[in-house]
């Protein structure tokens, strides 16, 4: 079930370097939110703070509060592995397990969670591949390696793998940046469809993509190198792209900087 994500005064550090400062935003369930802004403003850092991936780096830490439907995901009692299962992530480069079959790629997370019954795995694989708009292309070669698919198909396979465990939130870090325009449109169609079931947060450098797929857009920026990234403006996508409230947002989306 899709859940609401709320960040309050979030700071994230790499050692002593503060990469983002005071980020607060609410992301409603079953919406798509785009994170945009110039390189180095902390979009990926913020995204990785949301599923506690940031802290896997040595000396990296997060301050502030991040909740999933009111539950603080940084609470001492929270199981980090469970957080990462509930908040799935799709990366820039498609990263299927290369020697694993298409089928095994999709059900890898379910198996890790202890699901062993063949009929359950088969049903979940078909459902996830259908949801990822990939079923028709792979249904006759489920036992072939995932690495044999095209880049766009591999990315849809990674999305199928992510949604197979029924996460509550799906994070996507520039999921189309390694793809051609046709594969990019296929992923955008998919994102639109998946928001019926999940809360989706996507980092993108592509303004048209943000405008096409998202309901809400968050614009991040930095004052100068070495300063932390900040959330400058967060609003309905239509407003951000037609009539932003802050001059810096307008300058960025019209290509005057960044
Ligand atoms: N592993 C790391 N160690 C130290 N500093 C890092 C690390 N990863 C990122 N940073 C720094 O944190 C800041 C924010 O980086 P981040 O990757 O979150 O920005 P971004 O907005 O996603 O950039 P891009 O659009 O180029 O991907 C940058 O100054 C970056 O150099």
UniProtKB/TrEMBL annotation:
Domain ABC transporter, first and last residues per copy: 5-247
Keyword set, alphabetical order: ATP-binding, Nucleotide-binding, Translocase, Transport
Source organism superkingdom: Bacteria
GO cellular component: membrane
A Pfam family hit: ABC_tran
PROSITE patterns: ABC_TRANSPORTER_1 (PS00211), ABC_TRANSPORTER_2 (PS50893)
Record-level Gene Ontology MF annotations: ATP binding; ATP hydrolysis activity; phosphate transmembrane transporter activity
Matches recorded under InterPro entries: AAA+_ATPase (IPR003593), ABC_transporter-like_ATP-bd (IPR003439), ABC_transporter-like_CS (IPR017871), P-loop_NTPase (IPR027417), PstB-like (IPR005670)
GO biological process, one term: phosphate ion transmembrane transport
Protein's UniProt name: Phosphate transport system ATP-binding protein
Native source species: Catenuloplanes niger
Lineage summary: Bacteria, Bacillati, Actinomycetota, Actinomycetes, Micromonosporales
């Amino acid at each position: 079930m899709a859940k609401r994500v709320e960040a309050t005064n979030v700071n994230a550090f790499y050692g002593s370097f503060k990469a983002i400062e005071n980020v607060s935003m609410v992301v409603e369930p079953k919406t798509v939110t785009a994170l945009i802004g110039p390189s180095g403003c902390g979009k990926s850092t913020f995204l990785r703070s949301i599923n506690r991936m940031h802290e896997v780096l040595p000396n990296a830490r997060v301050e502030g509060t991040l909740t999933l439907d009111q539950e603080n995901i940084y609470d001492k009692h929270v199981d980090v592995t469970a957080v990462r299962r509930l908040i799935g992530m799709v990366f820039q480069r498609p990263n299927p397990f290369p020697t694993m079959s298409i089928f095994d790629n999709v059900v890898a997370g379910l198996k890790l969670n202890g699901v062993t019954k063949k009929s359950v795995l088969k049903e979940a694989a078909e459902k996830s591949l259908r949801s990822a708009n990939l079923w028709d292309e792979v249904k006759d070669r489920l036992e072939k390696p995932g690495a044999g698919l095209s880049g766009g198909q591999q990315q849809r396979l990674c999305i199928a793998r992510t949604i197979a465990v029924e996460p509550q939130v799906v994070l996507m870090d520039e999921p189309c940046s390694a793809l051609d325009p046709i594969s990019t449109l296929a992923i955008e169609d998919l994102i639109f469809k998946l928001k019926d079931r999940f809360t989706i947060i996507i980092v993108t450098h592509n303004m048209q993509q943000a405008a096409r797929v998202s309901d809400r857009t968050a614009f991040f920026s930095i004052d100068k190198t070495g300063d932390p990234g900040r959330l400058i403006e967060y609003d309905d996508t239509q407003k951000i792209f037609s009539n932003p409230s802050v001059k810096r947002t307008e300058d960025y989306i019209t290509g005057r900087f960044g």
